[in-house]
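Posting for a labmate who doesn't have an account.
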Amino acid sequence: MCFVLAGFMIMERVNQTSSVSEFILLGLSSQPQDQKPLFILFLTMYLVTITGNLLIILAIHSDPQLQTPMYFFLSFLSFTDICFTTTIVPRMLLSFLSEKTISYAGCLTQMYFIYVLGNTDSFLLVVMAFDRYVAICDPFHYVTTMNHHRCVLLVAFSCSFPHFHSLLHTLLLNRLTFCDNNVIHHFLCDINPLLKLSCSSTFLNEIVIMSEGSVVLVTPFVCITFYSLRNKDLKQGLRKLMGRRKS
């Protein structure tokens, strides 16, 4: 629903104002002799990434012993990594061969999904850290606490909340005016290079990036750090307790 709304407003914006209908992605190198080696390198890395994550998903779903919350979250993390990589790499490979231009709507669509999938990765890592925290700190209630219904809700939250974050930045970027300069010094459509190309005020965008963006980025990191430190302290306490019992 968020993506449909964003797409509609982006297309409406293209039809109404902008003198820029497409952007040029300069990529990693502008030297012609570098394009084929870079294409082979990133194609190989892309295939290895996709294959590795697919093997993880297949291994988890084919082994009944791996049907636990930890591997349930890991399979979704692997799927998100596949989607995130596919959002960036195929378009970058195309720019190595010939086409370096990307439409206005295509650029904002890529940026939208980069932020959605990148933040989904972060929130899934928080959920996985919480899962380990419950397993270590409250092992007797782990099965009831991390039941299948709750695991599905945690994954649903991790996948849905980033859409609001991404939609906010996409719509705020969509209200800007882009004039003659349409060259992006990057291999993907990111918000900072696009803000530099705008010929209208970007004050509101920068305020939102510093406030809302910082909260969305810092919160998962703080949660992961907190759960990791608690797990580490508990493990050290258990080691000391076992050592005293042996002595």
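Reply:
Got it, the structure tokens are right above this. The chain has one domain: 2-246.
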